[in-house]
């Protein structure tokens, strides 16, 4: 089934992005935009139809569209970001997603960001981070259980989002930084650990057999390839300065139409 990726142009205000773990440093916004265009090209090369949205200049983090929604085959869930400066982004993503799925919404005071949700088939895992709460996980469970999904909340240490620590490579394989998350909680048969010295390498985007990776983590890429996966590397160094990973810059889902 064809896949669609919703992306959003890099905001000219990116340098004012919210930061949790990194020290603020200058960001070349023009270079970030060019790197983002290269990321979109990698999505297209992976067989995905990219729907590029214009920037939201008043929202520095709006390029990180993954945090605003979870799109499943049956329904989409509009989240409630834990970072207050990002909550206005959801009103812009909702009408776009509504063209493809019926919508549900996470309600206040719960917090939930898409970067904290890892999907393995019908199993959803929610990272309990500074951006997502137990209440957010509980609301998500109520929404998705009628469609046969389970939701498990997982404590997280040292990472912005659960997807900073672990990514699904396929339905039974994860890539993870074990120091940040208990990999046994995922119940998979194969766990690939990030390479030593590359703790941020655990965020990758698997699309129909191709794994999009950041070229900032070459040894982790080698480990993924040794495990039998095909990789495609992108350069997103300026976006990394905003605590970005490769998953957070798109919402990828099946085109049910």
Can you lay out the helices and strands and say which pair or pack?
Elements (H helix, E strand, L loop, with lengths): L2 E6 L20 H17 L2 E6 L15 E3 L4 E3 L11 H8 L5 E3 L11 E4 L2 E6 L5 H11 L5 E6 L6 H4 E5 L2 E4 L13 E4 L11 E3 L2 E5 L3 H9 L3 E5 L2 H4 L10 E4 L3
Parallel strand pairs: 1-2, 4-5, 7-8, 10-11, 13-14
Antiparallel strand pairs: 1-15, 3-4, 6-7, 9-10, 12-13
Please tag this protein with its features.
257 residues, alpha/beta, 3-stranded mixed sheet, 6 helices, 15 strands, 26% strand, globular
Give the helix/strand class: alpha/beta
Strand order of the largest sheet: 2-1-15
Tell me about the largest β-sheet: 3 strands, mixed
Number of strands: 15
Q: Give the terminus-to-terminus CA distance.
A: 10 Å
What's the short story on this structure?
The chain is an alpha/beta fold.
Notes on the protein architecture:
This protein is of the alpha/beta class and 257 residues long. It has six helices and 15 strands. The protein has helices at residues 29-45, 90-97, 134-144, 162-165, 218-226, 237-240; strands at 3-8, 48-53, 69-71, 76-78, 103-105, 117-120, 123-128, 150-155, 166-170, 173-176, 190-193, 205-207, 210-214, 230-234, 251-254. It has a three-stranded mixed beta sheet, with helices on one face. Helix 3 (134-144) links the parallel strand 7 (123-128) and strand 8 (150-155). The chain is globular and about 40 Å long.
């Amino acid at each position: 089934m064809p896949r669609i990726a919703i992306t959003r142009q890099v905001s000219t205000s990116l340098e004012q992005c919210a930061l949790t773990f990194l020290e603020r440093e200058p960001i070349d916004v023009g270079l970030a935009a060019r790197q983002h265009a290269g990321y979109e090209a990698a999505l297209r090369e992976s067989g995905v139809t990219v729907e590029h949205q214009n920037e939201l200049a008043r929202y520095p983090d709006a390029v990180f569209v993954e945090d605003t929604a979870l799109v499943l085959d049956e329904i989409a869930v509009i989240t409630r970001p834990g970072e207050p400066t990002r909550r206005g982004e959801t009103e812009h993503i909702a009408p776009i997603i509504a063209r493809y799925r019926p919508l549900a919404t996470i309600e206040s005071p719960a917090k939930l960001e898409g970067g904290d949700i890892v999907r393995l088939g019908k199993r959803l895992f929610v990272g309990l981070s500074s951006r997502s709460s137990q209440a957010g996980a509980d609301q998500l469970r109520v929404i998705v259980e009628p469609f046969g999904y389970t939701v498990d909340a997982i404590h997280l240490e040292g990472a912005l989002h659960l997807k900073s620590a672990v990514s699904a490579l396929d339905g039974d394989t994860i890539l993870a930084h074990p120091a940040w998350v208990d990999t046994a909680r995922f119940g998979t048969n194969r766990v690939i650990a990030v390479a030593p010295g590359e703790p941020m390498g655990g965020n990758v985007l698997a699309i129909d057999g191709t794994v999009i990776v950041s070229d900032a983590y070459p040894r982790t890429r080698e480990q993924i390839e040794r495990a039998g996966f095909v990789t495609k590397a992108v350069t997103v160094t300026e976006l990394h300065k905003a605590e970005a990973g490769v998953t957070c810059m798109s919402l990828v889902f099946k085109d049910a139409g």
